[in-house]
Amino acid sequence: EVRSIAILNQKGGSGKTTTAxxxxxxxxxxxxxxxxxxxxxxxxxxxxxxxxNPGRGITDIFVDRAPLLELVRATDVLxxxxxxxxxxxxxxxxxxxxxxxxxxxxxxxxxxxxQHQWDYMLVDCPPTxxxxxxxxxxxxxEVLIPVEAHHLALPGVDRVIASVETLRAHLNHELRVSTIVxxxxxxxxxxxxxxxxxxxxxxGKLVSQVEIRENVRLAEAPAHKQPITLFDSRSKGAKxxxxxxxxxxxxxxxx
Amino acid sequence: EVRSIAILNQKGGSGKTTTAxxxxxxxxxxxxxxxxxxxxxxxxxxxxxxxxNPGRGITDIFVDRAPLLELVRATDVLxxxxxxxxxxxxxxxxxxxxxxxxxxxxxxxxxxxxQHQWDYMLVDCPPTxxxxxxxxxxxxxEVLIPVEAHHLALPGVDRVIASVETLRAHLNHELRVSTIVxxxxxxxxxxxxxxxxxxxxxxGKLVSQVEIRENVRLAEAPAHKQPITLFDSRSKGAKxxxxxxxxxxxxxxxx
Lengths: 255, 255
Ligand SMILES: Nc1ncnc2c1ncn2[C@@H]1O[C@H](COP(=O)(O)OP(=O)(O)OP(=O)(O)O)[C@@H](O)[C@H]1O
Ligand SMILES: Nc1ncnc2c1ncn2[C@@H]1O[C@H](COP(=O)(O)OP(=O)(O)OP(=O)(O)O)[C@@H](O)[C@H]1O
Ligand SMILES: [Mg+2]
Ligand SMILES: [Mg+2]
Prior knowledge:
The structure is a homodimer.
Chain A: E1 3-7, H1 16-29, E2 34-38, H2 44-48, H3 59-63, E3 73-74, E4 80-83, H4 89-95, H5 100-103, H6 105-111, E5 120-124, H7 131-139, E6 142-148, H8 154-170, E7 176-183, H9 190-203, H10 216-220, H11 228-231, H12 236-250
Parallel strand pairs in A: 1-5, 1-6, 2-4, 2-5, 6-7
Antiparallel strand pairs in A: 3-4
The complex binds adenosine-5'-triphosphate (2 copies) and magnesium ion (2 copies).
Residues 16-17, 40, 44, 124 of chain B line the site of one magnesium ion.
């Protein structure tokens, strides 16, 4: 069965896309087959994988009802495929109305995907708690919350957890937050260490052991259209995301 | 007449809130009276100014049609007042429909504000190009776009400019992008310098002379509920935002 994880935080710049792309690559290095679903009209993950001409990408399932399988694109990254996003997604949020059936569209299509083709599905969400994000939360079973190690990022975590809880109660009983990942941790600053300590004290075991350190190589990698594992395999960024992938794999349920 | 500026970028974590709060404080130091309007359901600017119990804040104009003046709160910061946001704003985006009249609500209320009470109105926007942001763009005359000095931030600038142009053409002929501000510039990295050079080559005079450098004091200030001018007046963050304020004041039209 596919392990489906939404990467979610309405706080902007928390490291969602950087985590989606690099965690996917590290899981792929470990022999896992990963489907990345880009649900953000900004299409940062799509650009990062160098997808040319995504057309309307995943917008098609909201507008034309195309099957997801037809939208899957290969990438140059071992084990990783992508369902691209595009700016057209912005329009999907405008035409859909806020009602349960609009929130369940993605879930229907995800349920029709062949279960044996991928081990992981990672959904990169936009920085909102809007309709696209709601669709992600109904389509997946787990939520990974990346959190920038800064004070302004702290209140948003409770808000995500509350949204997850609301959706779990009413529309997706299997949904749970599985990991909170401290990101962009600048180990030289007391501020970052304090924020991470605050996360650990507040959320306990939900917080990953691994912390993703601030590393400019992670910011440079997108310009080269490569995940960190290919762009700079020895960087701190690569080490940290590999360690995160190991931690996530260790949480896989035995068959 | 109030100089009204929307601080906008749908790319998350580009420095919108950090710019709204600290630019307001620096303008206030210069004897300008500044009204900050927090239009983000995350209410980061509201929290930063230490506003207790904002209630529904600015949501009231979308839902109950309360006059803006009744929502204004004083702050401890010289020259600065705030119209707070709250998580209720999330609900406003759900109930409003995407049509011109829903996009003009904020503008009507802003037009009714007393013109002599403030010199500047800065609107802190959420990381979206949704209904709240559209309301901001119809209510103001200028747009300031903060841009993080990283590759992933680059495509978003064109998207903001295109949205501004669409709104200018159809719904607000006075609207224009007045400044693009490079933010979180880490001067030690070539990457940041390259991204800033790319911004200058692409957008020319729209890009501010001043670049806001990465400075952990700016990330710490919100925890102390103080703008950088009060939290650490000698920091690079304070110097850079003061320089930005001077540049913005220099662009004021003579009476
Ligand atoms: N560990 C890191 N070290 C250095 N830079 C990083 C790191 N993680 C992310 N970044 C950079 O920080 C910025 C924000 O990261 P990213 O775009 O992944 O966040 P996001 O949550 O997806 O943003 P959005 O809310 O806009 O979707 C990007 O410019 C990215 O390159
Ligand atoms: N020049 C800077 N130096 C250090 N940290 C900064 C700087 N500017 C912003 N930050 C930090 O970067 C993060 C993102 O900044 P900020 O919240 O202002 O961006 P934003 O565009 O308002 O985000 P959102 O899209 O969520 O509204 C915050 O944690 C903030 O404290
Ligand atoms: Mg992203
Ligand atoms: Mg903000």
